[in-house]
Amino acid sequence: MHNTTALLIELGAIILVLGLLGRLAGRVGFSPIPLYLLAGLAFGHGGIVPLQASEEFVATGAEIGVILLLLLLGLEYSASELVTNLKSQYPSGAVDFVLNAAPGAVMALLLGWGPVAAVALAGVTWISSSGVIAKVLGDLGRLGNRETPVILSILVLEDLSMAVYLPILTALLAGVSLAGGTVTLLIALGTVGGVLYLALRHGRLISRAVSSDNAEMLLLVVLGLTLLVAGLAQHLQVSAAVGAFLVGIALSGEVAEGAHSLLTPLRDLFAAVFFVFFGLHTDPADIPPVLLPALALAAVTTLTKITTGYWAARRAGISAKGRWRAGGTLVARGEFSIVIAGLAVGVEPRIGPLATAYVLILVILGPLTARWTEPLAHRLTHRRTPPPAPRDEPTVTEPATAVRAGH
């Protein structure tokens, strides 16, 4: 009874604090994610008020939070749209990977963390935050802009790439041999391919089977199906988050719209718990030693993400203003960066504090670059453009010039 009482008190305090922080972030106009991370640091090991009774519950809630984040992202796309994006935007995805994974890998090697940690930190710096970026696009009223499909295509390619990257990283972290890693990757690719095939060929049947006019039944069936597929995907060495993303893609039409509205509050709750959970396992005293590398990585990868978005939008025929907006919007990092760091802390504990500081910096900077990159670029390029040469005006003291001008 005592443990249950302590659990309820701690959970109530956490959720109340998260609600207040979310309200504060909404008034200021920023993403609440950095405040959630700071709350986790305050409640965690080495924090002001360490938690004990609710830690296991929060860990489970964090897993559900990641699953719901990716499920609702998948609900934004149909399987046909996904395939079309893959065919048209894969060069942009390749440029995104090269420009943004390289800084993380190089930084890990410079810090002497070894090749496995380099692969992990490359993923941390590579993946943009789909959740933060989707919120920023909505807040800025850019969902209908011409550059927005380019941004979403890059995000989809990144999320889908996790189906390949996460099994490889998991095998490396576990010390699996090359043969074992190859088998794991093949299983992962086969699972993803099978789910995509079902989504493309039988998506309507799946949606029809899940559909219900009763909101309660629809919520239970979609949530149960998602958790089941996520668990099976995890068992087959595929990320549970990727499994949830593919479930979202398989659902379409009214089912997707209804599930999205029903699950959004649950996603917001458990996603907040996820970010708190990551902060709980990071000692604030570990952040100052890695703050300079985090700032350096943030500065470099801000420029590389802006370059990525600009290049992708230019390739799609978007105007210069749209190119700068696309680049600035892609800067934010978030959920996947923290997921990757959470997997890698067993090999290199310093990745956790570095990733926390890095995400904190870019999740604050991301909404600012989304808003101000295009106006700032316009102002700088306008200053560099030389003014037009002054035209000679005729005067009463120069009659010959006036005659020539008139002639």
Q: Would you mind describing this structure in some detail?
A:
It is found in: Membrane. The protein is mostly helical. The protein has one domain (60-381): Na+/H+ antiporter like fold (Up-down Bundle). The protein has 16 helices and no strands. It has helices spanning 2-28, 33-43, 55-74, 79-110, 115-126, 130-139, 148-173, 178-210, 215-235, 240-250, 253-280, 291-315, 320-329, 335-344, 351-384, 399-406. α4 packs across α7 (148-173) and α5 runs antiparallel to α14. The longest helix has 34 residues, at 351-384.
Beta strands, count: 0
Domain module count: 1
Q: What is the chain-wise order of helices and strands?
A: HHHHHHHHHHHHHHHH
From the alpha carbons, calculate the radius of gyration and give it in angstroms. Answer: 24 Å
Helix content: over 70%
**How many helices in DSSP terms?**
16
**Poorly predicted sequence stretches spanning 5 or more consecutive residues:** 392-407
Backbone shape: globular
**Percent range for β-strand residues:** under 5%
Mean of residue pLDDT values:
80
| Biggest beta-sheet profile | none
CATH level 3 topology: Na+/H+ antiporter like fold
> Structural class, judged by helices and strands?
mainly alpha
CATH secondary-structure class: Mainly Alpha
Query: How far apart lie the N and C ends?
Result: 102 Å
From the coordinates shown, what is the CATH architecture? Up-down Bundle
